[in-house]
């Protein structure tokens, strides 16, 4: 029982309740007004040239569609801050910021990160190379043992402080619940995150 | 992962046009990539929905219903105040799922349509009915996290938090089926009810009744302010549910006029417990009625050698979800 679906029927009476701010009824896609929409290219399975914007710079890459963002970062881009541990989205060692929000780069296709602002732990330091207040706080609070989880921890903390500059310990624990530390340094990580928040409020 | 192709259409018509039995829609890709990395299944083409504009948003309709776009992230479902107010059962279920890193990119439709998490299913080394095998090795092997209901042929539990929530809420999916001669999408609706899910007895190879060329555009959720989703986990955060209950109450004064009680992580498909709903109808939703509903929900349980604890977990979830739902929307 397939019906034809007009755009107006489809969204009639519907008002945007949120998500992404402004937005009333979505703009009419080209396909609605033209005879036939320009066909979307199907890329691959061989290497595909595209651009990734990482730590404020555009990088040309040539990768198969099956390459994950983590593959791209650690391989051709030589950014080994994000770590590969579980490779299944279960540990947070590979966390990067995607448009400012922490995500597991092992479960994101590199092609899906095209056009997005990618920040790795390498990109958190200031332009002069001065460590980010979070990085300083991790050192100050001795918030690591082996350090393998640390880039992901710092990145998740950075994402948290962007949306919540003054988190409670509970909020830090919640934001870090996808980051595992085998060495068990959690209490110090929570302390470091809040210490960095305090330092950043103080204008550092 | 085996090689595959990739497309990123910019409209829903283009997206549905690209789908085929081998070209699969990709939301967050959490399940598709996991299955591909484990060598269980790899589509020929992944059709990323990331650029389809309308599917990432929520809308409110004329009658208070909420339209939840098929690629809304679990993070948005968990945090948007309008979703929480209109259908808290959905917001709870999204908030309880996985971790912040997962919720940032995993999507509504992908969560609903994810495959089971049973270790044996996810490891091609083992025979598994869900991969066409003749036996379920979990029956004799590790089934501590297995089903306690409907577990005769296969004891993998349905993994999706949102499936239980949408089932309790009586949501309806709007599914795009193709594009007609004028370039307009054709569609059908599918209620998220017990008939939407496919039990192993009918077909072990799938869990949901949706065709390979079909695209879940959105889920329409009737207003259900007195609702809640509660799960019990072994770990306080991060963990998969050991049991889950989604409860929607329609109140009439101080009494329950009608209830829908969905059980998650209990059977190979999410279950709607008529018996639990009947135990609540006409009653004040206090501790006594909640306990009666919990007892009714687990009445037919057939726990396996190592998972009887999940019966008690399910009882606790139903009771808590009833009490939480009763305190809301009044
Ligand atoms: C550490 C960890 C913990 C987790 N814990 C939980 C948990 O507690 N509860 C829980 O529910 N889940 C949990 N998950 C699973 C996770 O939530 C799912 O894998 C995720 O939600 C899938 O969504 P996705 O958008 O990434 O799906 P995808 O992988 O993109 O898609 C999954 C399936 O849906 C299909 N699909 C996607 N979008 C559409 C559409 N619009 N129309 C038609 N078909 C579509 C795809 O083709 C595919 O078959 C966990 C995962 C991890 C890694
Ligand atoms: S390596 Fe990506 S989450 Fe573990
Ligand atoms: S410091 Fe070793 S894993 Fe966290």
Give an account of the 3D structure.
Chain A contains 7 helices and 7 strands, in the order βαβαββαβββαααα. Chain A has 204 residues and is of the alpha+beta class. A 5-stranded mixed beta sheet of chain A has the order 4-3-7-5-6, with helices on one face. The relative contact order of chain A is 0.11. In chain B, α5 packs antiparallel against α8 (161-169), α9 packs antiparallel against α10 (287-298) and α10 (287-298) runs antiparallel to α11. With 330 residues, chain B is of the alpha+beta class. The longest helix of chain B has 18 residues, at 309-326. At the A-B interface, β1, β2, α2, β6 and α6 of A face β1, α1, α2, β3 and β4 of B. β1 (3-4) of chain A pairs antiparallel with β7 (185-191) of chain B. Flavin-adenine dinucleotide (FAD) sits between chains B (24-32, 49, 70-71, 97-99, 102, 106-107, 109-111, 113-114, 159-161, 215-216, 240-241) and A (88-90). One FE2/S2 (inorganic) cluster is lined by residues 84-87, 89-94, 104, 106 of chain A.
Helices and strands in order:
The complex is a heterodimer of chains A (204) and B (330).
Chain A: E1 3-4, H1 7-11, E2 15-16, H2 30-33, E3 48-54, E4 57-63, H3 69-74, E5 95-98, E6 101-104, E7 117-119, H4 133-140, H5 150-163, H6 169-175, H7 186-201
Parallel strand pairs in A: 3-7
Antiparallel strand pairs in A: 3-4, 5-6, 5-7
Chain B: E1 5-7, H1 12-18, E2 23-26, H2 30-37, E3 45-48, E4 58-60, E5 66-69, H3 74-79, H4 81-86, H5 88-96, H6 100-103, H7 108-112, H8 161-169, E6 172-179, E7 185-191, E8 215-221, E9 227-232, E10 243-252, E11 255-264, E12 271-272, H9 274-280, H10 287-298, H11 309-326
Parallel strand pairs in B: 1-3, 2-3
Antiparallel strand pairs in B: 4-5, 5-8, 6-7, 6-8, 9-10, 10-11, 11-12
Helix pairs in contact in B: 5-8, 9-10, 10-11
Bound molecules: flavin-adenine dinucleotide and FE2/S2 (inorganic) cluster (FES) (2 copies).
Offer a concise description of the structure.
Chain A starts with a strand and ends with a helix. Chain A contains seven helices and seven strands. Chain A is an alpha+beta fold and 204 residues long.
């Amino acid at each position: 029982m397939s019906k034809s679906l007009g755009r107006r029927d489809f969204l009639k009476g519907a008002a945007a309740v949120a998500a992404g701010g402004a937005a009333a009824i979505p703009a009419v896609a080209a396909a609605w007004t033209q005879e036939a929409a320009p066909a979307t290219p199907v890329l691959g399975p061989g290497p595909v040239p595209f651009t990734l914007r990482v730590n404020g710079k555009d990088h040309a890459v040539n990768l198969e569609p099956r390459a994950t963002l983590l593959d791209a970062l650690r391989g051709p881009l030589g950014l080994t801050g994000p770590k590969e541990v579980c490779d299944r989205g279960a540990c947070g060692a590979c966390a990067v910021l995607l448009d400012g929000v922490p995500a597991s780069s092992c479960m994101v296709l590199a092609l899906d990160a095209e056009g997005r602002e990618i920040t790795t732990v390498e990109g958190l330091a200031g332009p002069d190379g001065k460590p980010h207040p979070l990085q300083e706080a991790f050192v100050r609070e001795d918030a690591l043992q082996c350090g393998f989880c640390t880039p992901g921890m710092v990145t998740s903390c950075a994402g948290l402080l962007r949306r919540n500059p003054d988190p409670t310990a509970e909020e830090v624990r919640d934001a870090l619940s996808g980051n595992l530390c085998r060495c068990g340094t959690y209490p110090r990580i929570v302390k470091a995150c809040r210490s960095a928040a305090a330092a950043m409020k103080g204008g550092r | 992962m085996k090689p595959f192709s990739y497309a990123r259409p910019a409209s829903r018509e283009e997206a549905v046009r690209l789908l085929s039995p081998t070209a699969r829609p990709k939301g967050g890709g959490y399940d598709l990539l996991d299955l591909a990395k484990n060598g269980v299944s790899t589509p020929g083409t992944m059709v990323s929905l990331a650029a389809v504009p309308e599917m990432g948003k929520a809308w409110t309709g004329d009658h208070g219903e909420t339209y939840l776009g098929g690629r809304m992230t679990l993070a948005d479902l968990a945090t948007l105040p309008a979703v929480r107010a209109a259908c808290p059962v959905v917001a709870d279920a999204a908030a309880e799922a996985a971790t912040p890193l997962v919720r940032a990119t995993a999507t509504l439709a992908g969560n609903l349509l994810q495959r089971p998490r049973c270790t044996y299913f996810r490891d091609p080394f083992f025979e598994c009915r869900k991969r066409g095998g003749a036996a379920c090795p979990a029956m004799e092997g590790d089934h501590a996290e297995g089903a306690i209901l409907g577990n005769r042929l296969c004891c993998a539990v349905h993994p999706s938090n949102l499936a239980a929530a949408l089932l309790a809420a009586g949501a309806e999916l709007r599914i795009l089926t193709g594009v007609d001669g004028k370039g307009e999408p054709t569609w059908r609706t599918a209620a998220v009810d017990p008939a939407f899910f496919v039990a192993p007895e009918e077909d072990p190879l799938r869990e949901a009744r949706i065709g390979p060329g079909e695209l879940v555009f959105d889920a329409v959720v009737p207003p259900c302010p007195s609702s809640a989703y509660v799960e019990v986990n072994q770990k306080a955060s991060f963990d998969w549910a050991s049991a889950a209950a989604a409860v929607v109450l329609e109140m009439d004064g101080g009494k329950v006029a009608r209830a829908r009680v969905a059980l998650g992580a209990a059977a190979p498909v999410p279950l709607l417990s008529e018996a639990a709903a009947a135990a609540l109808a006409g009653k004040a939703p206090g501790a006594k009625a909640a306990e009666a509903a919990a007892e009714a929900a687990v009445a037919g349980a057939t726990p396996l050698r190592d998972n009887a604890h999940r019966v008690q977990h399910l009882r606790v979830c139903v009771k808590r979800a009833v009490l939480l739902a009763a305190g809301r929307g009044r």
